[in-house]
Write a structure and sequence with these properties.
The structure holds 2 protein chains of 2 kinds.
Chain A lengths: L4 E12 L2 E12 L3 E5 L6 H9 L6 E6 L2 E3 L4 H6 L2 E4 L11 H5 L13 H14 L15 H14 L4 E5 L7 H16 L3 E5 L3 H7 L2 E6 L2 E7 L5 H9 L17 E10 L2 E9 L3 E5 L6 H9 L6 E6 L2 E3 L4 H6 L2 E4 L3 H5 L6 H6 L7 E2 L2 E2 L1 H14 L16 H14 L4 E5 L7 H16 L3 E5 L3 H7 L2 E6 L2 E7 L5 H8 L4
Parallel strand pairs in A: 3-8, 3-9, 6-7, 7-8, 13-20, 13-21, 16-19, 19-20
Antiparallel strand pairs in A: 1-2, 1-4, 4-5, 9-10, 11-12, 11-14, 14-15, 17-18, 21-22
Helix pairs in contact in A: 13-14
Chain B lengths: L1 H15 L1 H16 L6 H26 L7 H17 L5 H26 L3 H20 L13 H4 L1 E2 L2 E2 H19 L1 H11 L1 H6 L4 H27 L10 H11 L11 H20 L4 H35 L1
Antiparallel strand pairs in B: 1-2
Helix pairs in contact in B: 2-13, 3-8, 3-9, 3-11, 3-12, 3-13, 4-5, 4-6, 4-11, 5-6, 5-11, 8-9, 12-13, 12-14
Classes of the chains: A alpha/beta, B mainly alpha.
Chain lengths: 495, 328
């Protein structure tokens, strides 16, 4: 079968000062296929899609779209050829309505004036194709992340998209939302749209893609028909070495209960009770919007508690602010590490020492010797890869940024750590490292709460899983009963 | 390759110190074209001229690093200046009582700014624009169009005196700057200010009392500006509403010239002082060259815009480099 090639990249090279971001990359994409692009962070996937979208200038090589050769691509040209990109950070205007976003900058040939009614009607039609009900008059800022993504897709479709590039589209979505997105992708595919799908989640790649191309260190590695390859082979191609994707084994040695939560209410959650033991990893599952992050905020004092009780080592504690939580040795590693966890412009050691900066100060003056010692200690303990402790965090890779966040909580000598999506947007190699670290921490007696949307990781890492649904505790699953089905049932409220 | 690296490093160092190089360039330039420029007397005048704005600029910088801004500095001086004059002349309070009182009042003005910011949750730019109008207005009201004079002679020293050959306001500026630099770079409170301006949510989750810190920063700005108020009244030696008006303009320009970011989380006292000196040198040179007052306004406005443009340029360049590095 010889499918028509719509986009072919030939010998694309892009050099940034000091690094070769794309090294002579050639890949071709066929009409109506879902083509997954795989690679660790920094493999050059993002740079490649930027080249296709005309967001950056390439140094050499040719981009061939529908047989036409281009050595220079601009955003406008790329658009006019039917290329649309949905970036991880959405390009939506939060203060405009759904319809206005879909038809942003689009002129109506029949009228000189802007008609809200016309575009709203058009928007409904586009959204109806996907079988989704979103009021086109609602403001984008009031939508959930999944709905925003659908608006992004609708925007692309309304522009007669031929090649749709999606960068980590499933990252913020819950299981059922991912399914909806797959449905939409399949519809687009039927219409002959080529979809370039970038994801870290291998199971999705197998689920949705026809072919998969792998990149490593800025270079093209291989392309496989998805049906003819397997997980182990893809991982090997990505990392360039044999890497067994498995979850570290733990000698069971759970201690006494450290944290107990009774009838916790507030921040959208109602009546949640559970407990965690020393050395235990408690998984927290649920769909997006089930109130998992909200629960973490409540326990951490980042949102006001309406009623309920928190007990640490059997004693009731009052947690009204993050400072209270830190003093009670609770650490929170937020889902959004750039927005909430890190001071990106600041040095690595500055970040690590910040939560305890007061403790290592005498007469208000920071003891920088102590600060260096602590930063150095945790840098070594969890193997943060940085040329120096003075390096700005913004220059580290995602995995290492996550380690800096972890180092912060460890430096504060937390006994209870809450991980909110600990491996989101992190490549395979770094994921393994984070898993090993979490295991080590649990072994050392720390109680861990792990919120995750990655079912595999949740099942692999947890000793026990609690499932939330619409702000309430839907159930608790013991290790021996772990399976995806049970948890999904609880999460979606089916009993 | 190594040559290249050396070049790159030199380039980076120079770029970081652009304001400093500009200052050196201006000083050399004016030394040659204005014969009166490089004299002890003139330089002393120059530094005394900037010392008043230089003191307040330190306060402004605290607020700016914390992610805020204080546009009410000049108006705080207008109000404080008149009130201090009334205290000493109408109420016959001795300076030893009046000065601590006005420092307290100044801190109170900062408290008002800070509390309004956290309660109304509106950008400090708007809040302090509003309070600026109020402070100035109240200053005019209580002044009743008078030129208040008749201060005790002992009050003269603060604005007009010297310690050895150095004007008192210059010494005060140096002390305030040193203390400010110490707090910002050496203490945990300084860290918290940078954290607040760098990433407010991350700072909150790391246990910083966000609202409290914001209020304290405005109080610091108010306190420091009250020091300027005392020095300026002593210098002019007459209570008038004209004193101090628009001073925040020079403070802001100096801060931006010296690399204090408009977005918060960045800035140093050294940079600020370099920025202040650039303004001082320009002002002084224009006066030596007997530029008409209005043309000076044009130059000042242009310098402010250049400073902002430079700030933005640096940000973009950094962002680009980062994108390159992370994408790689």
């Amino acid at each position: 079968m010889d499918a028509k090639v719509v986009l072919s990249l030939e010998n694309i090279t892009k050099r940034y000062p000091g690094v070769l971001a794309l090294n002579n990359v050639s890949i071709s994409f066929q009409e109506g296929e879902v083509h997954a692009l795989l690679g660790e962070n920094g493999a050059g996937k993002s740079t490649l899609i930027k080249a296709v979208a005309g967001a950056i200038d390439i140094d050499s090589g040719i981009i061939k779209i529908n047989g036409q050769e281009y050595s220079k691509m601009t955003p406008a040209l790329s658009r006019s050829l039917g290329v649309e990109v949905i970036y991880q950070e959405f390009n939506l205007v939060p203060t405009l309505s759904v319809a206005e976003n879909i038809y942003l900058c689009e002129k109506d040939e029949n009228s000189a004036f802007f008609s809200a009614k016309t575009i709203e009607e058009k928007a409904v039609k586009v959204l109806d194709q996907f079988g989704v009900r979103i009021d086109p008059r609602i403001l984008v800022q009031d939508l959930s992340i999944a709905e925003q993504q659908i608006v992004e897709i609708a925007k692309a479709v309304s522009k007669n998209v031929k090649i749709l590039i999606m960068d980590e589209p499933s990252a913020p979505l819950s299981v059922s939302e991912v399914e909806l997105m797959f449905k939409i992708i399949n519809q687009l595919k039927q219409k002959g749209v080529t979809i370039i799908y970038i994801s870290h989640r291998l199971e999705e790649v197998f689920h949705i893609s026809d072919r998969v191309s792998i990149m490593r260190d800025g270079a093209y590695v291989a392309t496989r028909n998805t049906k003819e390859t397997n997980r182990q082979e893809l991982i090997t191609l990505m990392v360039g070495r044999e890497l067994k994707e498995s979850y570290p084994q733990r000698r069971k040695s759970l201690g006494e209960v450290v944290l107990e939560v009774k009838n916790l209410t507030g921040n959208g959650d109602r009546n949640i009770s559970f407990s965690v033991r020393k050395g235990e990893i408690l998984g927290i599952s649920g769909l997006v919007g089930a109130g998992r992050t909200e629960l973490a905020q409540l326990i951490f004092g980042a949102a006001p508690m309406e009623s309920g009780e928190i007990l640490i080592n059997g004693k009731p504690v009052k947690i009204h602010s993050p400072l209270d939580a830190i003093q009670n040795k609770i650490g929170l590693l937020t889902e959004d590490r750039k927005g909430q966890g890190l001071f990106l412009e600041m040095a690595v050691k500055w970040n690590i020492s910040f939560p305890i900066i007061r403790r290592i100060s005498k007469y208000s003056v920071v003891n920088t010797k102590k600060e260096d010692e602590i930063a150095q200690k945790y840098k070594e303990r969890i193997n943060i890869k940085t040329p120096s402790l003075l390096q700005q965090v913004i220059n580290l890779s995602g995995g290492n940024q996550q380690k800096v966040v972890l180092a912060k909580s460890l430096a504060a000598e937390s006994d209870i750590l809450i991980f909110d999506e600990p491996t989101r947007g992190i490549d395979v190699g770094a994921k393994q490292e984070i898993y090993h670290l979490m295991t080590e921490l649990a072994e050392s007696g720390i109680a861990i709460l792990m919120i995750s949307s990655d079912m595999e990781e949740l099942l692999g890492m947890s000793d026990r899983i609690i499932v939330l649904c619409e702000g309430e505790l839907a159930g608790e699953v013991q290790k021996e009963n772990f399976n995806q089905h049970t948890i999904l049932d609880l999460a979606s409220g089916i009993h | 390759m190594s040559n290249n690296q050396f070049g790159a490093r030199l380039g980076a160092t120079l770029q970081k110190n652009v304001p400093f190089l500009v200052l050196i360039f201006l000083v050399i330039l004016f030394t040659f074209i204005a014969p009166n420029f490089m004299t002890f007397g003139n330089l002393r005048t120059l530094i005394r001229q900037i010392s008043f704005a230089g003191i307040s600029a330190v306060g402004l910088m605290f607020v700016m690093i914390g992610g805020g801004i204080d546009l009410s500095i000049g108006s705080q001086i207008v109000f404080g200046n008149v009130l201090l004059a009334i205290m000493m002349v109408d109420w016959k309070l001795p300076p030893a009582v009046a000065i601590p009182l006005i420092l307290l009042v100044g801190t109170g003005l900062g408290l008002i700014n800070g509390v309004l910011c956290i309660k109304l949750k509106i950008h400090p730019l708007i809040i302090t624009l509003g309070t600026a109008a109020i402070f100035k207005g109240v200053g005019y009201i209580i002044n009743q169009s008078r030129n208040i004079m008749g201060f005790p002679d002992s009050f003269r020293w603060f604005g007009q005196g010297y310690v050895w050959e150095i004007p008192v306001p210059v010494i005060v500026m140096i002390l305030v700057a040193l203390l400010g630099a110490f707090i910002l770079t050496k203490t945990y409170f300084g860290r918290q200010i940078f954290a607040l301006g760098g990433n407010e949510e991350a700072a909150r989750l790391a246990g910083v009392n966000i609202n409290g810190t914001k209020v304290i920063l405005f109080m610091i700005s108010g306190f420091i500006t009250a020091i300027t108020t005392v020095l300026l009244l002593s210098r002019v030696f007459a209570g008038q509403t004209i004193t101090g008006q628009g001073l925040e303009f020079d403070c802001l320009t100096a801060a931006l010239l010296g690399g204090v970011s408009f977005k918060g989380g960045e800035g140093s006292v050294f940079g600020l002082m370099v920025g202040m000196l650039i303004i001082g040198v320009l002002n002084n040179a224009m006066q030596l060259a007997t530029f008409p007052d209005f043309s000076q306004q044009v130059v000042k406005g242009a310098v402010l815009l250049i400073a902002v443009a430079f700030d933005v340029y640096q940000k973009n360049r950094k962002a680009k480099e980062t994108v390159a590095r992370v994408a790689a």
